[in-house]
Amino acid sequence: MRQQFPGLQRTVAGRPAAFLDAPGGTQVPQRVIDAMASYLASSNANAGGAFITSRATDQLIADARAAMADFLNCAADEVVFGPNMTTLTFAVSRAISRDLKSGDELLVTCLDHDANVSPWVSLEERGVKVRTADINPADCTLDMFDLSAKIRRNTQVVAVGWAANAVGTVNDVAEIVRLAREAGAMAFIDAVHYAPHGPIDVRALDCDFLACSSYKFFGPHLGILYGKREQLRRLRPYKVRAASEQLPDRWETGTQNHGGLAGLVAAIDYIADVGRHHDPSASTRREAILAAYQVFRHYERELVQRLIEGLLAIPGLTFYGIKDPAKFDQRTPTVAIRIDGYTPRELATHLGDRGIFTWDGNYYAINLAERLGVQESGGMLRIGLAHYNTAEEVERLLKELRTLAK
Questions:
Q1: Cα–Cα dist 136/139, whole Å
Q2: Element (H or E) spanning 391, and its range?
Q3: pLDDT score of 392
Q4: Given 60, 125, 284, 305, which residue has the most CB atoms within 10 angstroms?
Q5: Is the pLDDT at 242 greater than 90, yes or no?
Q6: Are the CB atoms for 224 and 213 separated by under 8 Å?
Q7: At what angle are helices 258-278 and 30-42 packed, to 10 degrees?
Q8: In angstroms, rounded to a whole number, what is the distance separating the alpha carbons of residues 315 and 294?
């Protein structure tokens, strides 16, 4: 499987590169690169034309919607494409703001990436109130009592991440959606960090909106939004006059990234092929996707358990997030740490010079970094695994960190 990812063959100072930076963007299989290059070489055109390459682009867009519909378990006309999750979230928040009035409330959390915070906080200029659900700082899990208490009769939107990109916490989004629905509020789910690690079923979840980014699940830079058909029809997006009123076109501003859509289809087909390899009985692409995520989750749990056990044995190390093995089903294989005597940037630089790629900072989870008291001192060092990582890479990282902690 690793041989399908050309980026994994990179070396640094004669040593294999260890890509432990997956939460910032995963590597892509060769088929994604080939699909994008093939489209640009043979079918590059805008949509809606009367000639062959434009018709090929129309078909590609339809194929991409069908692939994402299988990925999310929704209808193809409920799939909206855009440049990134942040832009799509702003589009939704602005459309929702048309119907808001002074005194209405929105709820966000201090665990989330700012892309699911600022688009909602910006609406306070319209006279609405944005409340923030707190966390349990001991393990960086959402304080569900605080969250439920802040969902009130005048709450219009509950915006929450499925998984925390900084510390890996997987939230109980099914319960959060239920609480929002009970109060008559819309539920907006940021699934960017969850998407490479767990299966998504928007029908079962019953959320109003869900956003993700394909560059986090082995594809190109592209944003994807699911919206319930009735919500996509009811709300009024900001758009140009020439844009169609049909779904989902009315939500897509300007020409889309057609080469990126070709890569998206290839990325989803890669995931499905992993599933078929492990479960030949999978008869549909959706079934194959679900089979792949069973494999991903099992393997990643083994890796993150090895990683966390090793980290907790390092002297002077502070660990942020869930570290109880009994609760590992509530986290992704993403962890955040600090080590006494080093800034996170110093740690990341030391590791990077030795071919081990990690991230330092707040990763745009600004509220969380402030809540944990690390924002002013460089944030945290984030180590993020994907299914293409190995136990040997984990041991190599731990060895380097042990050396630094002596």
A1: 6
A2: helix 391-405
A3: 98
A4: 60
A5: no
A6: yes
A7: 140
A8: 34
Task: Give yes or no for residue 8 having a pLDDT over 90.
Answer: yes
- C-alpha 123/C-alpha 47 separation (Å) is 34
Q: Give the mean pLDDT of the chain.
A: 97
Is 87 strand, coil or helix? helix
Residue 332's nearest CA partner among 218, 209, 161, 174 is 161
How far apart (Å, rounded) are the C-alpha atoms in residues 348 and 359? 6
Coil vs helix vs strand at 356: strand
Q: How crowded is residue 357: how many other Cβ atoms within 10 Å of its Cβ?
A: 18
CA-atom Rg of the chain in angstroms: 21
Q: Exposed/middle/buried for 245, CB within 10 Å: 0-12, 13-18, 19+?
A: exposed
23 near 193, Cβ under 8 Å? yes
Give the DSSP H/E element, type plus range, for residue 52.
helix 52-72
Mean pLDDT of 207-233: 98
Question: 147 — phi, psi (to 5°)?
Answer: -60, -50
β-partners of residue 333 are: none
Backbone φ and ψ for 349, nearest 5 degrees, come out as -65, -45
In angstroms, what CA-CA distances link 15 with 8, 11, 362, 388, 403? 12, 5, 28, 17, 18
Q: Which stretches of 284-328 are assigned E, i.e. beta strand?
A: 317-320
> Rounded to whole angstroms, what are the CA distances from 320 to 68, 137, 287, 334, 336?
33, 8, 35, 10, 5
Determine contact, residues 310/398, Cβ cutoff 8 Å: yes
